[in-house]
Amino acid sequence: MFTKFKFTRRQTENYFKAASRDLKIARQSDVPEVIFRFSYDALLKLAIVVCAQTNLRVKSRRGHHIELIEKLAALLKDSEIGIIGDEMRLKRNLDLYGGGILISQKQASEYLEWVRKVFSKAERYLKKNPKLPI
Fold first, then answer.
1. Number of separate domains in the chain
2. Among residues 5, 22, 118, which one has the least CA distance to residue 72?
3. Is residue 134 part of a domain?
4. Residue 65 maps to which CATH number?
């Protein structure tokens, strides 16, 4: 699912900016579905950044979101990322393919706060690698 790939500094920075932008949109919204969706997208983009730091690029195939979440959990040494990230993925899939689901304000806020914590952990991880000036 992953291939070795040497990302440029600019590519990695752009991925990080995109992840940060999605997190900002989630933080600024008061619509639970928007908060949830942008939090999930930010998590996936953050996983791409962390993988890029280790010269791994995910192939866009069936199941690649699962692989991204699992790789992020492994690289950050945090099994909770795999569990909650997969829970978010399943809810997103139910919403997209299963006729929609309702996300409460409380759920959306909890997911957002959790993604913010994952961002903090990832930023500490990324600071150890000189490719990204965070």
1. 1
2. 118
3. no
4. 1.20.120
Whether residue 70 lies inside any domain: the answer is yes
Residue 132 lies in a domain: no
Q: Which domain holds residue 36?
A: 2-127
pTM: 0.88
Q: CA–CA separation, 104 vs 46, rounded Å?
A: 24
Which residues are CB-contacts of 70 (< 8 A; sequence separation ≥ 6)? 82
58: β partners: 2
Which alpha helices (DSSP H) does the chain contain, by range?
9-28, 32-53, 64-75, 79-97, 105-127
Per residue in 21-49, pLDDT (tens digit) is 999 999 999 999 999 999 999 999 999 99
Evaluated on CA atoms 103, 105, 110, 113, the torsion sign reads positive
Q: What does DSSP assign to residue 77?
A: T
> What integer pLDDT is reported at residue 58 of this predicted model?
78
Q: Which helix (H) or strand (E) holds 78?
A: none
Angle at 120 between CA 39 and CA 15, to 5 degrees: 60
